[in-house]
């Protein structure tokens, strides 16, 4: 069974106490939420940078790690 189709490279996934899945998208810098298995992902953010890990806190808030990226000229 496919749980979700996220339109990007998924960096990290977390599930909250209500069974919703949250995923960080590496290239677009977005955070997505999927409410039910097979459901359509909803973008919760715009581009917030190079997303990394994601954690659902006990109070339901999300913590999303980001990394600084550097470009070599």
* Dominant shape: globular
Number of helices: 0
Overall residue-averaged pLDDT value: 86
- How do the helices and strands follow one another from N- to C-terminus? EEEEEE
- The biggest beta sheet, please? 4 strands, antiparallel
Helix-residue proportion = under 10%
Number of strands: 6
Span between N and C termini? 44 Å
- CA radius of gyration is 13 Å
Secondary structure class reads mainly beta
Strand content: 35-45%
Strand order of the largest sheet: 1-2-3-4
Low-confidence stretches: none
Report on the structure:
This protein is an all-beta fold and 73 residues long. The relative contact order is 0.25. The N and C termini lie far apart (44 Å). It has a 4-stranded antiparallel β-sheet, with no helix packed on it. Strands 5-6 form a two-stranded antiparallel ribbon. 0% of the residues lie in helices and 41% in strands. It is built from no helices and 6 strands.
What is the strand and helix layout of this fold?
Blueprint: E1 10-15, E2 21-25, E3 31-34, E4 42-43, E5 50-56, E6 62-67
Antiparallel strand pairs: 1-2, 2-3, 3-4, 5-6
Short description:
By secondary structure, the protein is mainly β. The chain is built from no helices and six strands. The chain is globular.
